[in-house]
Write a structure and sequence with these properties.
The protein has twelve helices and four strands. It has a four-stranded mixed beta sheet with strand order 2-1-3-4. The chain is α+β, with helices and mostly antiparallel strands. It is about 45% helix and about 10% strand.
């Protein structure tokens, strides 16, 4: 836990607010959600489900599970993180899966925080596949009309809009917490968030601004994105 804020808990007179962008496909989002209580005292966090694959496509990136050696590294790191955090962790039998139905279901439920957390635990605490076991996910969330909900055009459009809003905010990965237009990406940035809340001028200092003066060097050719797409 960061000392900056925990030593001065009365420093924040007004609670800040932030948007946490997640996708149930991400085990790191699972770890983040399990630790969200660390931030609840200091900030109101609204959790927004987005389609991580569309974010990757926009920025021309591969996902961590799409590179063989990185895939192995990611899964093994998650096992290590679970032990470090003291959190139960179990990979589903197949990963990555298609999270689209689960995402649309969550959007149809109004981006319910409880439902998002339950869905993440369904996948990485119980090791269940929300694509192949969509009926099981619906049962867990108490939804009886899941198949109908995910076909609703308003739900589909809302998910696209949420994903595009994340991209417009500069989000390039999940989980990302956006506060005051600053993106804090990854489960390892929770301490950074806490320090920022205690020191809101952090990004205005010269050492933080210095990156703007660093010239772009070599740029590899890559594919370009072009908005949010769903299959």
């Amino acid at each position: 836990m960061s000392e900056a804020l925990t030593d001065r808990p009365d420093q924040l007179d007004v609670k800040s607010s932030g948007l946490l962008y997640v996708d149930p496909i991400s085990p790191y989002a699972y770890f983040y959600l399990k630790q969200l209580g660390r931030l609840d005292t200091y900030i109101d966090v609204k959790i927004i489900p987005i389609l991580f694959g569309a974010v990757l496509a926009h920025w021309g990136q591969l996902g961590p599970a799409e590179i063989e050696t990185k895939r192995r590294h990611t899964y093994q790191q998650c096992v290590w993180l679970a032990k470090r955090f003291g959190i139960k962790f179990q990979m589903p039998n197949r990963h990555p899966f298609n999270p689209l139905a689960a995402l649309r279901l969550l959007v149809s439920m109004g981006n319910s925080r409880q439902a998002i957390v339950q869905t993440s635990s369904f996948v990485f605490q119980e090791g269940r596949d929300p694509e192949y076991d969509f009926a099981g996910l619906c049962e867990r969330l108490g939804v009886v009309d899941g198949d109908q909900r995910i076909q609703d055009d308003h739900v589909k459009q809302a998910l696209k809009q949420q994903t595009q809003a994340a991209i417009d905010a500069g989000v390039f990965g999940v989980p990302t917490l956006v506060i005051d237009r600053h993106c804090f990406w990854g489960v390892d940035t929770i301490d950074w968030v806490i320090d920022y809340l205690a020191d809101p001028a952090m990004f205005e200092r010269s050492e933080m601004q210095a990156i703007e003066q660093v010239a772009w060097g070599v740029r590899r050719k890559r594919g370009s994105g072009g908005g949010v797409h769903e299959s």
